[in-house]
Amino acid sequence: MVTLRDFKKISDHEWEIPQSFRPGMRVPVRVFATRELLEEALDDLSMEQAVNAAALPGTVGAVIVMPDVHQGYGFPIGGVAATRYPDGVISPGAIGYDVNCGVRLLGSSIFFEEVEPYLDQLATALDHYCPSGAGKKGGVSLSEAELDQVCRLGARWALKKGMATEQDLRRTEEGGVIEGAETSQISQRAKDRGRPQLGSLGSGNHFLEVDVVAEIYDAEAAQVMGLSEGTLALAIHSGSRGFGHQICSDYVQSFQLAVRKYGIDLPDRELVCAPMNTPEGEAYLGAMRSAANYAFANRQLLAHQARQAFEEVLAGKVKNWHLHQVYDIAHNIGKIETHNVDGVQMKVCVHRKGATRAFGPGSPGLPSEYQSIGQPVLVPGSMGTSSWVLVGTEASMERSFGSSCHGAGRVLSRNQAKKRVRGDQLRQDLQNEGIHVRAGSMAGLAEEAPEAYKDVDRVVNTVSGASIARKVARLRPVAVIKG
Amino acid sequence: MQKGSGFKEIDHTADWALSVWAPSLSELFVQAAKGMYWLMEITLRENPRVEREVVLEGADHESLLVNFLSELLYFGYSEELGFDHFEVTVEDTRLAARLQGAPVQEQKKEIKAVTFHNLQVRQKPEGYDVTIVFDV
To answer: The whole model's pTM is what?
Structure first.
């Protein structure tokens, strides 16, 4: 077990478990946390999992842990690991079951006061246009050939169908499509799960949220993003649905054999992996990219559907009801990027699970309008609490493989949350605070209660204290839609 | 270890976990299946009753268990079927099962994946036990 004594303090916001801590570790573990958050993180297996991840063949630099960390499968949620490309490994567990689970934020010129009388209607319309809930089908039903196109084109597929703008795509990580998606190594089972679900929100911790921009911290960056105090914003948190889950399941299963074949010894079966320059590794890379593109398309469709809801309720009632894209980020993904590791420019696969890319100003892959401010980083809080918009910094490129936190991080298990919180009471409490809630399941709502999560403000203060991201705006929720 | 056979929900930070125990390996698999359906809060229609047979392979018992439960989930996604009676035979790397059930009437929750997290089928004098974590 990892204890506080095993950490070396680097600063108030940065701690390190040295590589010498345990045999098998190829790199140290670097944790971004305050002392308080670090102590809390020691309550579950997150740090053990981070130490285990440091044994992945080809890992370089350090395994990075974010302040919202909690234990996951094999790899902690709120973790980043970079492996040398192409001979290092790729690990589905270090990316996550919900490939490209991520967040999209849209902004507007709609002032809260103008729409307050219509919020309840808006919540109902959003619930109607954006299907959510267990096993629900999506807004679009795809043939196998269309699914193939979605996998190759990502959000660009939606553009071809008239459900996206160029600005939407330009202001999305990777322009909404990752090159190198390959569908031939995806199981029939995964395809069957993916075909009916495009354009749906899902369940669990996925949601759609109408926010008000409550406070601006960086006026210039907020202006570039089109976020003004007192205006409405819309956040969409969703991923690749059953498609991504099945792909991850399939590869975690098949990599059980790959690790034996390649003589890879790992402390946790969920960390199974394969070198990227093997048929198995290449197959997963191609499949993972397909799932990532499906998720970009999914969030694009959800945005399109949400825009329809806004039009239905607000057209004619407010002057300009349009929603414009701020940005769209992935927080469960593997990306081939070039980073400086110990003075050497190196191509690596950056695995981010519950962690967000946070590239600084001037970085490659950013749209021209964001070059001067850095990449927007979208950090949703728990239901009923603030969400944050940050930007990436140069320091994040140096300290965390250009990564930052992704959200609040859970502290209570779903079981514990359900026992402590009653869904209908929670809905009433939120309603009393002026937050309109549409939830498909009361138990599901209880599991997502704010007290089940860390305080997102503390998480955000830590990453900004460590300079790996900078605050731009704080948003407060006024409507939440979840399955 | 508990006597007899059964399952119960246990704590896991982000998802759902079950503790399962049984006097035999085959019964362990049956209890795991029943526990999974219980977590999903599934009710089956009375009619029509259906039967399915599956034969699966896996590297070891843990792989077989993940494979078996994933197969049951898949019947749910693809045919909207659930099962309440199971006859299971488990060998080292092979499983054969006869499933009886019906179309799903209601399902309150969704399980997206069965994980290998901490998955270890343990054999004790009284029988077998395992902890299974599901991704939701």
So the answer is: 0.93
